[in-house]
Write a structure and sequence with these properties.
The chain is α+β, with helices and mostly antiparallel strands. About 35% of the residues lie in helices and about 35% in strands. The strands form 2 sheets. Strands 3, 4, 5, 6, 7, 8, 9 and 10 form an 8-stranded antiparallel sheet that branches. The longest helix is centred in the first third of the chain and has 50 residues.
């Protein structure tokens, strides 16, 4: 009788262990499926977020292109903007600069961008070239300076350069034995420049597409 009781007790224990094992396997299977589903949803959401990123991350291929063969560069600008290059500037018969005005079809105001090509035979860095120019030119005021990335290039930027009736940014990049300088109105509080903040953000994206040709 005692032997029979022991057998039943062992059988019950085995049954409990089997139930626990089966339950554990079922729980693992359910959680595994749930995690896989969550991962798929997360991946889909991430892909959606990537596809919805602004053009500053995705390609600017849908933008229009302005090309200047004489100065050897091209830039892109939004489709709902128009670009108006002024008469080019020359020194001793050689073109060295152009002033471009950008205007959104949605805004009455325009935004000025001056692009000047400089010789850099000593192949100075952007900062060295700017500092050399500051020594050779009449002194002028600016609030600060910094190294910044500008698309494919590294730029040295003078911030809020005092320009009589407004404040300008002056960014310089090096391309081989040449350099390009970009002058455009500063963001924020800027006399005589309307929509300076919103237009500045767009023009910074435009400048990030700059490339020599």
């Amino acid at each position: 009788m005692q032997s029979s009781f022991c057998v039943k007790k062992q059988t019950l224990a085995s049954l409990i262990i089997a139930v626990i094992v089966v339950g554990g396997l079922l729980t693992y299977f359910v959680l595994s499926k749930s995690n896989q589903t969550s991962l798929i949803v997360l991946q889909n959401n991430n892909q959606t977020n990537i596809n919805n990123q602004p053009s500053s991350i995705n390609s600017f291929s849908s933008w229009q292109t302005y090309k200047n063969e004489a100065l050897g560069f091209e830039i892109k600008y939004p489709n709902d903007w128009k670009v108006n290059p002024t008469d080019p500037e020359f020194i001793n018969g050689k073109q060295y600069g152009v002033e471009i005005t950008f205007q959104s079809n949605k805004l009455p105001s325009i935004y000025r961008l001056i692009i000047t090509k400089l010789d850099n035979p000593l192949k100075l860095s952007a900062k060295e070239l700017v500092n050399q120019s500051l020594k050779n030119e009449p002194p002028f005021r600016y609030e600060s300076a910094s190294d910044e990335a500008m698309g494919l290039y590294n730029a040295y930027v003078l911030h809020r350069v005092f320009a009589i009736d407004e404040y300008d940014e002056s960014a310089t990049i090096i391309v081989g034995d040449s350099a390009y300088r970009f002058i455009y109105p500063s963001p924020g509080n800027n006399p005589n420049v309307s929509e300076s903040e919103s237009l500045f953000l767009v023009v910074e994206k435009i400048l990030s597409t700059f490339r020599s040709i």
